[in-house]
Amino acid sequence: MTSDVLTLLHQRLSDLTPTEQRLAQHVMSDPASVVDSSITQLADACHTSAATVARFARSLGFRGYPEFRLAVATNVQRNARARERFQISESDVTPEDDARTTISKIAYTEAATIEQTARDLDTEQLERAVSVITKARRVDIYGIASSGLAGADLQQKLHRAGLFAQTFTDQHLALTSAALLGEQDVAVAFSHSGRTLETVEAVRVASHTGASTIAVTNNAGSPLARSSDLVLTTAAKESTFRSGAMSSRIAQLAIIDFLFVRIVQRDYDRISESLQRTYEAVTSHRVN
Q1: Which secondary structure element, helix H or strand E, spans residue 139, and what is its range?
Q2: What phi and psi values does residue 63 have, to the nearest 5 degrees?
Q3: Percent of the chain with pLDDT strictly greater than 90
């Protein structure tokens, strides 16, 4: 479970009941108020019962409301200290913000996203992903829209390392390629929500062929995660001006860097030579 309760609420939001979603939205919109609220006060503010709030806290992995409220308080304090470093009073961009404030808020959000993703990343899952990719005959990469951009970045890095990888953003091409994978192959799928139909279908086809499957998603309980052998979870939150296409991409790219550097470390001599050779191949195409 993520160490950031607000990120956890964002990740789990689509899986909650309508009443639980109302509770989650209230906490995410004004977490500071929760710190000073009893279980009854929070229940009244969300037009529900104290018993429902207690069940809500337990469904998120906490022993009860006191532990949940403590986690929210820790979250509020940590975020306040981080905002102070970036000299901003709140993290969400507003239409009235000037250029400097907007830049500071975006920098704060992106730095927090990378830090949270790194802090919560399951290193055992990462190491297993590194192992299957380095041994793979070929690597298929699936992603739609902004997740396709992340997939292209991974494909380019693996290609330069001398590994056979190809990325697909077209559903039909992804499905036909997945159908031809085998037990020696790997499929890596990117989806912020973990619910992108085309990506989930491609992974399920790849899994049916016996290929190892890896999901990079913001929701560890999503259909994509449940369909994959390994899950690398990002920790990104959306806001008014920072849709999933923006917040997810920075977290996905961080995961790719973690993954790629560990791959290089596994076979440093060979891969460093490949990286040098590919660098030299394009050197003559640089303008002096």
Answers
A1: strand 139-143
A2: -70, -20
A3: 68
List C-alpha distances in Å: 18 to 21, 48, 120, 222, 251: 5, 11, 27, 18, 28
Type of residue found at 45:
A
Q: What is the pLDDT of residue 21?
A: 93
| pLDDT bucket at 83, cuts 50 / 70 / 90 | confident
5-85 placed in CATH 1.10.10.10: yes
Fold of 123-282: Rossmann fold (3.40.50)
Q: Which amino acid is at 145?
A: A
Separation in Å, CA 231 to CA 88, 161, 221, 224: 34, 23, 10, 9
Are the CB atoms for 165 and 154 separated by under 8 Å?
yes
Residue 146 near residue 245, CB atoms below 8 Å: yes
